[in-house]
Amino acid sequence: MKSVSVAQMVIFICLSIPVLFILYKHGRPGFLGWIYLFAFCMLRIVGSALDIDGSKGATTIANIGLSPLILGASGILHEGRHYLRTDKDPKHGWFYVLVYNLFVLSGLAILAVGNSALQSDEAKESDFTLVKVGISIITVAWIVLVWWAVLTLCQKGAQIDASGFEAGRRLTWATLFALIFIGIRVLYTLVALVPLDPNLSPSTGSLTIRVLLSFLPELISTLILIGAGLMTRNVRRGVMSVGWLHHERVPSKSKDAHHMHNRGTMPQIDAMIDE
């Protein structure tokens, strides 16, 4: 069992490096998504270390680590919508993201409290209820995110420039594909926590279950998002350069008026000089 934790720790240490690189390259539009994905990698590293040490906290870390992964996917989807220009008012998009984040974080808090209480020798029925409510909220959040990604792909965005539009499509499709594997992990956690079967636990279950239903879905979804991030690493610079060229090529009304004014006054000045 320790071999899985060792492999997971090494792999996510390696994956955290490109995530930081993508975070730097994507800048402010992608900050929320990539910082959450980096937090997910850190939680997996810490959880693996605790599991190797034999700490009971490894189970709690393994279960709450789903929330940063879902929030990372939602942030990357929001970045894709930013480049697709699907939101008529960007403030509305940020409002929806804020509400979604609060919803997921509330599920995370409830799940963490209930899961921590179950690790003690005096677990209560209310602790089981907290765990079920927490994982149910996270499951609903995953369903909402899938619907949001599909809706984004069906929407007709405003194609300001080809590079930004293509990057937005790639980020959105990557999020949708990643959500398929995140869904496997979410449903597995739901099945494991609701009946509280130790044979299905992400930390105490069999090696096959841990690899197929926990480790691999998380790894594949993370690799999909990282791949999309690397493919679109220069999107912000490209969009900014296109925006600058567009601004230079389309003169403002004040410039046009000033230009016309000069055209109208030049003949008068020439006439005065001739006299």
From TrEMBL:
Protein name (Swiss-Prot/TrEMBL): C6 zinc finger domain protein
TM segment ranges: 6-24, 31-52, 58-77, 98-118, 130-150, 171-191, 211-231
Record keywords: Membrane, Transmembrane, Transmembrane helix
Domain of life according to the entry: Eukaryota
PANTHER family with a match to the protein in the record: INTEGRAL MEMBRANE PROTEIN (AFU_ORTHOLOGUE AFUA_5G00100), UNPLACED GENOMIC SCAFFOLD UM_SCAF_CONTIG_1.265, WHOLE GENOME SHOTGUN SEQUENCE
Start and end residues of each DUF7702 domain: 3-233
Pfam families given in the database record: DUF7702
